[in-house]
Each structure stands twice: as C-alpha cells, then as structure tokens.
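This entry is passed on directly below:
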Amino acid sequence: MIIPLPGWTRPPFTSNEARSKRHFHELNTAKREVHDIIGWTVKARKVPPMRCVSVVLVWVPPDRRIRDSDSLGWALKACLDGLVHSGILPGDDYRYVPMSGHRIDPPAIRPRMWLELQELTTASPQSKDESA
C-alpha cells in the first residue's frame, strides 16, 4: 500500500539537522505536523488498521546531488509515530513493525515522498533464546 506524503518534496528534517542544528521546540512542532499529515492522509485514503507491517519511506529528490539515505531516519521515525498516533498501527516496536527502512529513488522533475506499507501475516520469527 502506498501512502503519499502531500507537500513533501524533501524530508522536514534530515537526521543530521535534527541532531545538530535545530532547537527541540522546532523539532517537536515538525513532528506534530508529520502526525497531522499522516493522520489526514490515512483518513482520506481510508487506510484500515493493520497489525504487523513492513514500512519503507521513499524520497524522489529534485536533483542529482549525492544524498545519504540514512538521513531519512528522523522522518521515518516521525512517520511511524504518526501511523501509531492515527490508529493505523497499535505500536511501532518490533512486534508491529519488524522491518522498516528508507530509500532514495533516482531524481525526477516532480520531487515527492511516500510511505510503502506491506502488511505481514506474522512478525519476525522468534530468536532461539525465546523459543527455548
């Protein structure tokens, strides 16, 4: 399932910006805005609640500048929190989101971002320590 992130042509903050250049109040405001965007988008698309998913945040940038896909980590975390806050997921720990990641696709004239959700039938297998 694809969930577009309306208005996002770049992440609200990269992980480096969140860690070093921004005041916590600015980051909290941005996080609340992400929650609102996710909430309104899933409501408009009538996304049903899900129990266990794999989530990928995808960015199509506007140019060929070299970018580190790990810089999307802050935005992915804010999106996962938004999915929980909007009631799509019961939580964002390993029981409900055993796999998550981020990807930067080749540049395009129309930069954009979206979430790819794949519902999973079960969470990851138990480790040997848990099954004993």
